[in-house]
Specification:
alpha/beta, Rossmann fold, four-stranded parallel β-sheet, 13 helices
Length: 386
């Protein structure tokens, strides 16, 4: 009996350090669930929740608890959301959409010593701010490469760029404009105030004066809807309508079926999605289980950013460094293949390997048409929604 007691005591002592290190960590999800960015915020949030489900099922030791606060698509509310989540014990933040919202939110997180992980803002100023706790898995360069690759395959000679004067959209539009001009493509730029709702004057100029091969739209969901509605009425003689985030999604096709046919946008996933890797299958199966629908690229981004964050938290927990800047340090050591390709963070927190793909709405599907090595079908060109 005494021998058994001694054995049990020894086992308890040996397991105690492991038990002490095993813990549940609160991660804050700061996202726009209402307001102008509600659709994209909801899409990213789905990915966050799928990541938590998969992590908690497969990690075997540490657990993640997600606490969500709606930032209402507003910078001031984004700051308040981060502060609220910090007060609730969050060890890190995942989420954010729109560079104008992410900038103040991530700045607040940095002051509070919290890692801020996102895929919702690509403005270069976000990584130039010097925040040691800021990380993102995508950037302007990856979107620019995708747009330029598509236009090269189209062999366009003239492009009209319609873009919101917000930071991220202006940054991308300017970069693409310079690159196209350097290739000898005629480019006409049409900046617009984010508050604009009537795009007919701009589209009419494009129809009567520019007469381009393609229109490149750099904005957000409501902007795309306004531009495409105006174009359906005025019917400019163009060969393609091309956008970026978040346009080539099943949500947009479902809500605006008359506007989306043949429209291009950035998309890492075809729709319906297919995955070959174990990680991809776990993501897709769990997504379908939780939301009873096919995953899209917004969920994919939310999943990847969050899973990388959760893994970093777990590694920091094993080393006892969660409260000592260990999460950020573990993210800086990250270098692995993910559902969006290889992710490795530079000194400024940017993913140095990011490259996007272009998708096109074709019937009820979204087909990846660029780059060729990842294409799931051929682009319909020339082709427009009207």
């Amino acid at each position: 009996m005494q021998a058994l007691k001694r054995t049990a005591l020894l086992a308890t002592l040996l397991l105690a350090p492991l038990a002490a290190r095993a813990a549940e960590f609160t991660v804050g999800a700061e996202l726009p669930l209402t307001g102008s960015l509600a659709r994209v915020g909801a899409g990213m949030h789905e990915g966050v929740m799928v990541a938590a489900e998969v992590f908690n099922r497969t990690n075997g030791k540490h657990k993640i608890k997600i606490v969500t606060v709606d930032d209402e698509s507003a910078p001031a509310k984004a700051i308040a959301a981060v502060e609220k989540l910090a007060g609730m014990g969050a060890v890190a933040i995942t989420g954010g959409y729109g560079s104008n919202n992410i900038a103040p939110a991530s700045g607040t997180a940095d002051k509070l010593g919290l890692v801020y992980m996102t895929s919702g803002g690509v403005d270069d100023s976000l990584v130039a701010a010097g925040h040691r706790n800021f990380f993102r898995i995508n950037n302007t360069a990856g979107y620019e490469k995708a747009a330029l690759g598509l236009f090269a395959d189209m062999k366009v000679k003239a492009v009209s760029i319609v873009y919101s004067t917000k930071d991220a959209t202006s940054d991308l539009a300017t970069s693409v404009q310079k690159a196209l001009a350097a290739r000898g493509v005629k480019v006409t730029a049409h900046p617009f105030d984010p508050a604009i709702t009537d795009f007919k004057p701009i589209v009419n100029k494009i129809r009567l004066q520019d007469r381009p091969d393609a229109v490149f739209m750099v904005g957000y969901e409501n902007d795309y809807v306004g531009i495409l509605r105006a174009a359906r009425v005025l019917k400019p003689q163009v060969k393609a309508m091309v956008g970026v985030w978040p346009l080539a999604t099943p949500k947009m096709a479902g809500e605006f079926p008359d506007l989306m046919p043949n429209v291009y946008g950035t998309a890492l996933l075809p729709y319906p999605a297919t995955f070959a890797s174990a990680d991809g299958k776990a993501f897709a199966d769990t997504y379908r289980q939780l939301y009873k629908k096919e995953p899209d690229y917004l969920g994919q981004f939310g999943y990847v950013q969050s899973m990388l964050l959760f893994e970093a938290i777990a590694r920091a927990a094993d080393k006892g460094t969660v409260a000592k800047g260990g999460i950020a340090e573990e993210l800086r050591r990250t270098d692995r293949e993910t559902l969006i390709g290889r992710v490795q963070f530079g000194a400024n927190g940017d993913n140095i390997h990011f490259s996007h793909r272009m998708g096109q709405h074709q019937g009820k599907n979204i087909v990846i048409v660029w780059p060729p090595q990842h294409a799931t079908g051929k682009m319909a060109y020339p082709a427009v929604p009207w």
